[in-house]
Amino acid sequence: MRSSNSSWFKVGVFFILISGAVLLPAGLRAEALAPQVVLMPLPYAQNALEPHISSATIGFHHGKHHAAYVNKANELMAAPQFQGKKPLEVMLMAAKDPALANLFNNLAQAINHEFFWLCLKPNGGGEPPAGPLAEAIVKSFGRWAKCREELEAAALSQFGSGWAWLVADGDTLKVVKTGNAETPVTQGLKPLLTIDVWEHAYYLDFQNRRAAFVKAVLDHLINWEFVAANFARPGPYAPLEPSAEPKQKPSEP
What we know:
Elements: E1 22-24, E2 36-38, H1 55-77, H2 87-95, H3 101-118, H4 132-141, H5 144-157, E3 162-169, E4 172-179, E5 190-196, H6 203-206, H7 210-220, H8 224-232
Antiparallel strand pairs: 1-2, 3-4, 3-5
Helix pairs in contact: 1-3, 2-3, 5-7
């Protein structure tokens, strides 16, 4: 549990965190010897994405599914072999080791979900605003409509659970899809935007109409400021600025 006198940084693996699951390096808190992910509040009210995503869906998705991934990932990262490592290091280790599949699935899902929440905002969506990101989309796809078409196709063709992503591969933008908990980070790609197509992301509101959910996200909810910030920062794993300095320096363990 989060103690009242703990100091918290918002630090990132491959994205800019403004709230939500905070990735804490071991030793950031005096009592934390193992890496941790922490579920923190959404960057908007639970009902802020209505009528496109209901408060009920967000409540179950964030408060139950996402929270369960966070709790299980922390339980599994408490093993001695992970002490002194950051969550990203643990995730990349687990991605390569079939014996750590359960850890990878829960940790990657905790990270994927936090990224997804930050990709959304009320009154968002539509075409990306003019700027370097929009120019890169035109350079890579010819026009935004083509990029959108590929995002929709990836989201709809992903069999079962998974994610559709807009990523940067060097100077080129591309659309990829991943199944279950998989993430483009393990492929050396820099995620810019994602759409969650696990059924728990949309079933209460859209039932089996995944296409309608994807359209609603793209038309009304994409947080282009966040996507543009991801594109602008260097490297796929660049460290991110904390949102606030701690009130006092954490004591040495």
